[in-house]
Predict the structure.
Amino acid sequence: MDGIFETEEPLATREEGSWQVEEREMEQGTPTFFVSEMSGMDRHKGVRHFESGAAKRKTSKERAEREAKEFTKTCRLTEFFTHPSASEHLVSASASSSSRQPEQVPACDASASSLYGSSSLSTGGNDQTAEEIEIESKHVPPEVQMATTQNYDIDISLWSEHLTKQFIDYWTVNGSESLHHSDAKFLDAKSAVQIDANNVSRKCTPAMFERRNQNGEVVKRSWLCFSPANGRVYCFFCKLMGVSRSQFTSDGFCDWKHANRLVVHEQSKHHIQAVLSAASRAKGAGGIDSKLTMHVGQIEQYWCSLLKRLISVLKFICERGLALRGDDEIIASPHNGNYLGLLELLAEYDDFLGQHIQNHANRGTGHTNYLSSTICEEIVRLMGNEVLNEIISRIKLSKYYSISLDSTPDEGHIDELTLIIRYMEHDTPVERFVKFLPNQGHKAQEMFEGLMKFLADNDIDIQNCRGQSYDNATSMSGRYNGLQAKVVAENHHAIWIPCAGHSLNLVGKTAAECCQEAISFFFFLEAIYVFFTASTHRYAILSDSLKTVASGPVSVPKRISTTRWSCRAVAVKAVVQGYLPIRETLAKIARDENETNKTCYEANGLHDKMCRLETAIYAVFWHDILGRVDATSHALQDPKLDLKTAVAMLKSLECFVREKRDCFHVYEKKGREMSETGDYSQTCKGQRNVRLNPLDFGRSEEAALSQSEKFRVQNFLPAIDQFLSSLDQQLKAYEETCSLFGFLSKLESMNCDEIEAAAAKLVAEYKNDLDQTLGVELVQFTAFFTQFLEDEDDEKGRAHYLYKLLIDKKVVDTFPNVEIMLRMYLVLMVTNCSGERSFSKMKFIKNRLRTTMCHDRLSHLALMSIEYDILREIDFEKLIKNFAAAWSRKVPGL
């Protein structure tokens, strides 16, 4: 270790570790970074030598003692400006330096070390003479002297990490001009020296304090400040506002070889944010550099103008559920996707967008242009949150609401749980898709916990829930452990209403599977579809044949769906309308010698099936029944439908089917005309096993029935009776709710006592929502609305009309309890058809080409596509300004 401190030996001939060189040069006052450059050695390639803990502590203690000794020799900062000459000041300072302590700066609680002439703080080499100090003092601006007289540091490197409010306010008002120290002679004398491996030395130059724009203009970097104490530069705004920690705020920047990092810093997010924060703080005093503030405002306005165009394009794409990205993100590429493609199209007619794409597109990573997929996804997320927040705010304004949950797997085989909420918007009930909840599982408890978490996160009170509607799955509708039971246990006012549309589907399903002949008939419809669509040749023959129908073109046979009964209605309708052309086409294909034997056999079998009278009768019968079921199902899917209207429609369908029970002869007559035969097909009668079933044991003689009567008893009546029985069972689920609000449809025909009795029943059920004056209000309200009955709209229902009348006539204050009662009734969910629609949109958005889409992105895209009316209404101006301020970057050339 003795040779380590021998400074006379040339540096290149020393045989010692790089850490030893660094330690010795550090003791001489030279920073470690520059010693590593001067040594020409790569510390990562050589052999590392490590000191022991005791040696390190000893070295640290000795270094601290040397620094303290040198510090006591330092003159006070103010003495350089208060004495007539620097030489006299130096002599005076030397005479009293042994006992003097450095003066403290109260504003930032930091020691004000000397800025000039100290070898421990300067990398210039030896101690300076009085003449050198006098030359340096001449370059100190008068603003620095003024700041010094006010006890504020004129060296930015001496600022404390914890700045006081008074200190920050002072510099935001006075700016950074007194901290620049950008004079050429001053920089040459005080700048830290950087020596690279080629023994090339570099210093800070005045050119670094300027920035040249693309148009050739030179702009001064008012944020860059030079520290005479350590010869490094700092960022005035970042160090003052403390938004981030970097070289420009902590140790200082001195990598003069890579001075282009100054450009990177001034274009960074944290620097722009610090400038904006300082400008906002000094807005009242007007102390920040006006040109810099104006420049930052221009940058923000530039990005705002661009964001308006980006959001308009995203609204167009998301509203239609289209894909955003393509195979690449290259402008002018045919594979860059809808988002960049539409921006290119708009750029042809928008000069601003065209200039932006020309100057900033395809510049690679690190060049800010707001055209990347990262910014696109961030904007989509913010837009989706805006739509969701708008829906949540409307739900809270309505107070009362109903919920619907349903689940289905997406194309990525991930179970998606959709949440639909029904509430009142002004005078109309609406059903809004809220989001796809994360995969909760199929158990009722798991779905209940997911629902409660969403309501709690969005501050929606479960006690304001007045209804819930799900399908008839056990996990949803279970009386004891289903989801509806758990919600009712939390809030007994959340009435469970089975989905009317799903219930109607179950009624049709049970009727279609009541007997073997009914099952065989629907299999036959599916076989017709498969036979013709399996071959383009056969499909073309059938299409040409259906065009010759006298009543006009007839649709081709359709596929049978087990869940969508509208498909069954369409399939039966296609067969009934094209019965004769389809049969003739099958006969033609069966006789065609060019067809394969398998094809001819299938065609012949289907043709024989269509020639049967039973098939024709069933086709006409199911065409009538399913036609009315389909029409009723479409009516039930209206999101504005109220419960009483839905129940009335189901009861009307029940009456229609009941009347058809005695119309078998009508269907038989039409079947004979369609099949062109009057005989039923002969069925083999099974022989009784005499050995197992003796003729005289427990058997009575069978009634002799004709073929027509047998078909009626065994196939026609069971289908109708099963349909009526199932429908009546489904209607019983709505009796309890209808008993509470059913009187609303007949108010004008009720006397005062009946109205008050019905009102008292409601008040007893909803004690926390209605008071005892409801009966009196209803009596008066009945007399009020009867004057406007001629204006009633029967399509929307009586309750909807009454509520709209209250709002339009502005009499809510007169009948407050009536308004609350109608609002609670109208928010009751009738079906979960809105949830099924969200699944259709989900399958369109997350198709087989987009299966890797994450859950949150799917939820945001589906929300903006389904609730497109809210997306159009929202003003994204505030979002644009906040985004531009948070993500603002330096625009090259601006």
User: Anything to note?
Assistant: Residues 1-46, 80-151 have pLDDT under 50 and may be disordered. The chain has 38 helices and 13 strands.
